[in-house]
Amino acid sequence: MGSERHQRFAGKTALVTGAAQGIGRAVATDFAEEGASVVVSDILGDDIKKLESEIRERGGTVVAIPCDVSSRDQVEKLIEDAVSWVGSVDILVNNAGYLTTGTIEETTDEIIDRTLSVNLNGVLYAIRAVTPLMKRQGYGRIINVASITGKNGDNSTVFAYGATKGAVISLTRSVARQLGPFGITCNAIAPHAVMTKMMEYWDADKKQQIADKIPVRRLGTVEDMSALIRFLSSDESSFITGETVNINGGYYMD
Predict the structure, then answer these.
(1) What local confidence, expressed as pLDDT, does residue 4 receive?
(2) Averaged in consecutive runs of 10 residues, what is the pLDDT profile of the chain (254 residues)?
(3) Taking the complete model, does pTM exceed 0.90, yes or no?
(4) Which of 98, 161, 201, 252 is flagged as catalytic?
C-alpha cells in the first residue's frame, strides 16, 4: 500500500474519529496509503470493521476501535487501546460529528444535548486524553473538523450546531497556545457544501443552487477535505498552528 504516494506518515500513528463514512473514511484510507498506522473509530462498529478489512486488503496497517465520543470513558479507553496497539498517537483527527436540521423552536433538549456532547465534548475529551502522551513524545498533530457555520452561523441546521463549531474554533486556538511549546500543533478546518451522508437532506436543486453561489462553481468532496487534513497533519505544516482553514471554494472568506 502507498506505492503510488509519498510515505509522508511512515512511522506515525493517526487516530481518526467518525471514520465510518465521509471525510473520516477518506482521510483514514489516505493516511494508510501514505504509510501511517491508522486507528479508525466510530460509533458504527460494523462499518469501521469493514473499513479495517478494506485497508488491510490494500496492505495498510489499521485497527478498528468502536467509540461513542460523547462518552468520556469510551474516549479515554480509545486512546489507551490505540497506545496498547501501536505505542503512540502522533496524529489526532477529531472528525466525529452530529448534525440535524430544524428551526430554533424545533430544537429539543435531546438535540441540544447530543449536538454538544458529540461535537464539543467529544473533541475536548479526545484532546485531553492525548495531551500527556503527545507531551511525552514531544510531538503531535491535532486537527479538528469545524464548519463554516462556526464562523458564519447556522441557516438550515439546528442553531446548536454552529454554536458547537464556533466553540471548536476557539478551543483550537487555546490548545495551540498551550501545546505549541511541546512540539504539538492544533489546527481546524471549516468546510462548507461537502457532499457526505450528513448532507443527504439537500436535494438536487439545492445542491445546484449552492454550487452556483460558490466562486469555483462546484461542491466540495471528501478528497478535498482529506488533502487539507493530511497537509495539516504533516511536518510540512509545522509552522502553522491555531488556524481554522476555510475550505469552501471561496463561498466564505475571512
Answers:
(1) 47
(2) 71 98 97 98 97 98 98 98 96 96 95 98 98 98 97 89 97 98 98 77 79 91 96 98 96 93
(3) yes
(4) 161
Q: Is 93 helix (H, G, I), strand (E, B) or coil?
A: strand
* DSSP letter string, 233-253: HSGGGTT--S-EEEESTTSS-
161 as an active site residue: the answer is yes
For residue 93, the cross-strand partners are: 16, 143
Q: Are 49 and 64 in contact (CB under 8 A)?
A: yes
Residue 197 burial by CB count (10 A; 0-12/13-18/19+): exposed, middle or buried? exposed
Rg, the chain, Cα only: 17
> What domains sit in the chain, N to C, each tagged with a CATH number?
13-244 (3.40.50.720)
Contacts of 81 (CB under 8 A, 6+ apart): 65
